[in-house]
Amino acid sequence: MTKKLNNVFYQVMWNRLISVVEEQAQALVRTAFSTSVREAGDLSAGVYDVNGQMLAQAVTGTPGHVNAMADAVSHFIRRIGRENIFDGDVYITNDPWEGTGHLHDITVVTPSFYQGSLVGFFACTAHVVDIGGRGFGADAASVYEEGIYIPIMKFFDRGEVDQTLVSLVRGNVREPDQLIGDMYALTTCNEIGHRRLSAMMDEFNIGDLEDIAHFIFDNSRRATIEKIAALPRGSANGEMTVDGFDKPITLKVKLTIYEDTIVSDFTDSSSVDKKGINCPMVYAKAYACYALKCAIAPEIPNNAASLEPFIMKAPENTIVNAKHPAPVALRHIVGHFVPDTVYNALDKLIPNLVPAEGAGCLCNFQVSLRPRTDVPAPMDAIRSEVLTFNSGGAGARPEYDGLNATAFPSGVMTMPIEATEHAGPVIIWRKELRPDSGGIGKTRGGLGQYMEVGAQEGHEFDFQAMFDRVEHPALGRQGGGNGGPTTIARDDGAKMFGKGKQFVPHGRRVVLAFPGGAGYGDVSERDLKSVKRDFARGYISQQSAQQDYGLSQDDIAQVLESIEKGEAF
Amino acid sequence: MDKKSNRLGVDIGGTFTDVVLEKNGEQYSTKILTTYAAPEDAIIEGMHNVCQKAGIKPSDIGQIIHGTTLATNALIERRGAKTALITTSGFRDVIEMRTESRFEQYDLNLTLPEPLLPRQMRFVLNERVNAKGEILIPLMRKDVEALADKILVAGFESVAVGLIHSYLNETHEQMIRDVLLEKIPNVMVSLSCEVSPQMREYERFNTVVANAYIKPLMKSYLSRLEGRLKDEGADCNIFLMHSGGGIISIESAAEFPVRLIESGPAGGAVFAANIAARYGLDKVISFDMGGTTAKICLIKNQTPKTSRVFEVARTYRFKKGSGMPISIPVIDMVEIGAGGGSLAHVDAMRQIRVGPESAGSEPGPACYGRGGTKPAVTDADLVLGKLDADNFAGGSIKLDKDNSAAALEDVLGKPLEMNALNAAFGLAEVVDENMANAARVHAVENGEDLSEYTMIAFGGAAPLHAGRLCEKLGVDRLLVPQGAGVGSAIGFLRAPYSFEANRSVYMRLSDFDEDKIKSLLNGLKQEATSFVRNCDPDADILSDYKVYMRYSGQGWEIPISLTQDQASHPNAQVFEASFEKDYSNLFGRSVEGMDIEITVWSVNATTPLKPVARIAEETVADLAPIDHSRLMFDAALGVNVDAGIIERASIMSGSVVTGPAAITEDETTIIVPSSRQVICQPDGCIDMTRKSEEIGL
Description:
The complex is a heterodimer of chains A (569) and B (697).
Chain A: H1 3-31, H2 35-38, E1 43-49, E2 54-57, H3 66-80, E3 90-93, E4 105-114, E5 117-127, E6 153-157, E7 160-161, H4 163-170, H5 176-204, H6 210-229, E8 234-242, E9 249-257, E10 262-265, H7 281-296, H8 304-307, E11 310-313, H9 331-335, H10 338-349, E12 364-371, E13 384-388, H11 417-423, E14 426-434, E15 448-455, E16 459-466, E17 487-490, E18 499-504, E19 510-513, H12 528-537, H13 542-547, H14 553-564
Parallel strand pairs in A: 10-11
Antiparallel strand pairs in A: 1-2, 1-5, 3-4, 3-6, 4-5, 6-7, 8-9, 9-10, 12-13, 12-16, 14-15, 15-19, 16-18, 17-19
Helix pairs in contact in A: 1-5, 1-6, 3-7, 7-10, 12-14
Chain B: E1 7-12, E2 16-23, E3 26-33, H1 39-54, E4 63-68, H2 70-76, E5 83-88, H3 94-97, E6 122-125, E7 128-129, E8 135-137, H4 141-154, E9 158-162, H5 171-183, E10 188-191, H6 192-195, H7 201-231, E11 237-241, E12 247-249, H8 250-255, H9 263-278, E13 283-289, E14 294-300, E15 303-304, E16 306-307, E17 310-312, E18 324-326, E19 330-331, E20 333-336, E21 342-346, E22 352-358, H10 377-383, H11 401-416, H12 420-445, E23 454-458, H13 462-473, E24 477-480, H14 487-494, E25 498-508, H15 514-535, E26 542-551, E27 558-562, H16 564-568, H17 572-587, E28 596-606, E29 622-623, E30 628-634, E31 639-647, E32 655-658, E33 661-664, E34 669-672, E35 676-680, E36 686-690
Parallel strand pairs in B: 1-4, 4-11, 5-6, 5-9, 9-10, 13-23, 23-24, 29-32, 31-33
Antiparallel strand pairs in B: 1-2, 2-3, 7-8, 11-12, 13-14, 14-15, 14-20, 16-19, 17-18, 21-22, 24-36, 25-28, 26-27, 26-28, 30-31, 32-35, 33-34, 35-36
Helix pairs in contact in B: 2-7, 4-5, 9-14, 10-11, 10-12, 11-12, 12-13
C-alpha cells in the first residue's frame, strides 16, 4: 500500500477517535446523576496516548475543560507511577489544580490496555451536584472549607473497587448516592471508550497508537501554526474590571502574536480574592485558549498539538493563577471573563473579528430549600438543593447582533423549568427575555433575561447568588453601548447581593434581571429594518426605539399598527 | 374483483412522488416529479399511471395510504399559517430562548434558528400550575376573553396553547380553547396537553406551535386531495402514514399534522421491517441513502426502534441542536448529511471532508456535465469503477468520468498530492466512515452490537456503499430488496393502523401506586385505541405498554416494555427487575441503592401486522453468468481489482455472484466487495454475505 493510501486510513482513524470520545461523552450524559451533567452538559471526555498527550476530545462539553483535560492525564501518570498502572485500574481526583479547577469536578482516568500492553488512556470529567463542605458557593475562605478533597488515587485497583474511598466520600457529602452514582458513571464512560478503541485497533490491525498520534499531532500543529503565521505580528493590552466578591477585580492581559505562538500574559491582574471566586491557572488558560481558537482556528479539533501554540502566563497568586489553598469553588466567574479580556486586546491587533463584551459568566444560582422555621411547617415540607444554570446576553458581533440569553464562553445549557420544579419544591415564576438590556449599536448586544424564584408553600430557602456585572456591565466596542447590568432584589424590595448565600423567608421571592451583552459600532449605522423589527418584537421599548435608535413617530405608529394586525417583521 | 385487495401507497418526497399499486400481491410502481404548487397533481398522475399498468380503474382501489414531506417542508420553509401562541405569564420566550446554549461552540458568528413564531405573536395569560398539577393561580375567564378579542382583530388563523405543567393538569388549556372557539368560530386551536403531553416546556411548546403552524395548510391539502381523488373515481378511504410507523385516519391527521413529519422515512423503516420478517431476522439495521442524506434505523424483532422526541429542520450542517425539537412518538432514525450529491473539500488539516453541502440536481456532481466543478460522492463512485458511465439511471444520464477525475484532482488531489483514483478512494472512505460512525454511535446509544446485525439497504445510493459499510461495521449479511427505489411507499402498504398515546407523570417505585397506574394506563389505552377504531371499527387491536424509567436524579430515561399482564397487574418488583436488566444491558452495570422513578407512560394501540410468510431461502447455488468485467477499486484491499459486471434482471433465483462484482439495475448498482458473495433469493432480494468456505465456489 502506498503512503498516500495510508494517509486515508489515518484520516479515517482520526475521525474514528473523535467519534469514540463523542460516544464516551454521550454515555456520561445518559448515566450521570448530577443535573449539571445531564441537563446542562457540564462535562468533558478525551482519549490520550501512552505519554498522556491528548489525541481527541469530545465536542460535547464545555470549554473550561479544554486545557484542563489536556493536562490532567500527565498528572495522573506522574502521581500513580508507571510501574503501578495495571489493566483494570481506574484513577480518580477532584484536585482543582491537577484536575479541572474546583472540587466539584471529578475527573476519572482509565488506562487502556490492548493485547496486554498499555496503549493509551481515557479521561472524563463531570461537575457533581455536591461535594460536601459549605456547599457550592463563594463563601469559603480556603479550599479546605469547600468540600472533600480526593487526591489522585486509584478508584479501582485491577478491577477491585476501593471501598475505603467509597465510604469516606459517602460520609462527607450531602447526596452520597448521587455522587457515588456519578463516580460509577464516569468509570462506565471510560470503559465504553476503551472498548471502542480496542475494536478500532483490531480493524486496522495496529498494536499501538504511536503512528496515528504522530499523524494527528503533525497535522494539527502545522494547521494551527499556519493560522497563526497568517496573522499580523504584534502586541496589545486588554483589560476588564468586574464586580468580584467584595472588591472589584481587574483582569489585564498583554497579548503577543509571534510567528508560531500566541502568548497571553496576565501579569498585573488582581491578586487572589479572600472568597471562592479564584481561578487555578489551568482553568483560566482553558478559556484564554478557547477564545483564541474561536477567533483564529475554530475548525481545528482540540488535542495536545493544536493547543500547544497558545501559551498563557500569569504570576502566582494573581486571581487567574490562584495557588493551594485559595478557595476556588466559583472559579468559573473569573474564568468566564477571560475571553472578553483577551478579545479586548485582540481587537486592537485584528479589527472586525471579535465580539463586544457579553454577560460573561453564567448566571447560576443554587436554592437550598427547607421547611419553614418561622411557624410550624406542613408535614410534607422537605429539604432540597436545586442548582440552575442561566445565561445573560452575548456581545454583539461585527456583522450580527449578540445572541439573546445564550451562554458565551461557557458551553452549558439551561434546564427546563418544569424539570427544575420536579427536582425540589422551588417555583420559577418567570424566565423570559429582558427588553432594552442589549447594548445599542450598529449591531445590538444580546438580551439578558428576567427570572423570579420562590418556594412552594411551607418552605423557606437560602439563595446562593453567583452573579457578576452588578456594578460593571458589559462595555461596548467600537462605539457600541453597554449592556444592562445585573439586578437582584427581593419582591418586597429588600436589598440582595450579587454573590453569597442569602436567606429568603417564607412567601417571598427573589427578582432577578440578568445582564445583556454590549453593542458593537455606532448606533446611527444600525439599519432601520432591524430597529423596527426589534421594536415590533419588544426587544427594545418604544422609549429606547425613539431615544436610542431615533425611530420616527411615523415608523412607531406603523409598527404598532402592524402588531395589532398580527403581522410578522 | 375483490376491491379490498387493491391498495395504493403514495409517498411525496422532496424530488419524486412515488406511487405503488398492489394488486393480488403484484406491485406496479411509478415515480413522478413532485408538483410543489399542487402536490395532489402528481398523485393523480401517478395513480392513473399505475392503474393503467395493472389494468384497473381508480374506482377499483380499495384503500389509499399516503405519506408526505409536506408537513416537514412547511416547517423548513416557514410556509405555515398566521399562528399565535398563548402561554403562561412569565414564559413568553420559551421557544426563542431554547436551551440558552450554542450548538457549535467555536463559531463566533453563529446565528440561532428563529422560532416559528416571532415574539409579537406570543401572548401570555396570568395562570399557574405547579409540578404536582395543583393550580397556584387560577385562570380568569375574562382574561381569556380579552385576549381572544385581540387575536380575532389580528386575524390569526391558528392558535397554539402551551401552559407550564399542562401535561399534569389540562383544565386551563381546555378553558382557553373553549373561549377561543366561542369567540372566533373559524380559528383552529392546538393544545399542548393533547399534542404532546410531556414534561419539558421547550419541547412541548415547540411541538404544539409546529402543529398549529402547519394545521391549516395540511387540513386544506388533505381535503383537496380527498376531493380530487373522488373526482377521479377513487372514492375509497384514505389513510395517512405517521412518524411512528403506523397509519391514522385522514381526520386524525388533519387534527395532529405534526405527527405526519418524517412519515416518508418511517415508511422506509416499515418496509425494511417487513423484509426482516420475511427472512426471520430479529436484528436489522436499515440503511437508506439518497442524494443528500443517509438515514439509519435499528429494527429489533421486526419492529423499528421508536423514540419520544426528535429534531426537524436542522439549520447548521445537520448538527444536533440546530433544528427544532418535536416531542411525539417517532421511529428513531439517525440522519446525516451524506448522499450521492454530497461534496468534498480539504480542510485546514489537509483532511478530506465530505458533506453536508450537496450538489443537488443542479448543477449536480461534476460527472453530470452541468457545470459542477466540485467532486461529489457520485464522482468518486464513478472513478472507482463502481458506476458505469454509460448506464447510469438506466442510461438516461451519461456520466463524464473525465469531469469527475478533473474535479477530484483539482479539489482534493492537488492539495493532498494524490492522483484522481486515490482522491476518489479517500473521498469514498471518508463518507463511508462518517456513515459507519453514525451507525456505531446510534447502536451504542441503544446498547446494541452491530456485528450481530443484518443490514437492509435501499434508496438510490445505498447499494453502492452498503457493502463497504458492512465491512467497516463487521456486519456479515446484507439484503438489497426489490423495489428499493420506492421502499417508503411499499412500507406504507405494510403498516398497521396504530396510534401511540403518552403522558409525563412522575412516580417513584417507593411510592408505587397500583390503582393510579392501572387507571393511567387504561386512560392512555382508550385514547390510543379510539384513534385506531377511527380507521377500522372491527379490527383486533393490540396494546403495547411502555414506561420510561430512570434512577431518581438522572435526566435520561430508558424505555421498558411491559406485557399486558404486567400492565393490568402492576408490581413494583417486576418493574424494578425489568429496569435493572435493561439498564445493565445499556450501561454495563446497575447502580445499587438508588430509588427508581417512572417519568413517562405510553400505550401504542395497533392492529396486528399481517403475518409475513417466511421465505424459503436459497442455499444450493450455481454461479451466475458474468457478461463482462471492469476495473473497480476495492477499499478494504486498497487496490484496483477486476470486477464482474452483471445485470440484476439476469440473475436467477439461487444464482451466486462472487465479489468483486457490480450488479447493475436501472435505479442503482449493487457493489459486491472482494470479501463478499451474493446469492439471489426467490423474492429477488440480493443476499450478500461474507465469503465462506462452503459456498466459496
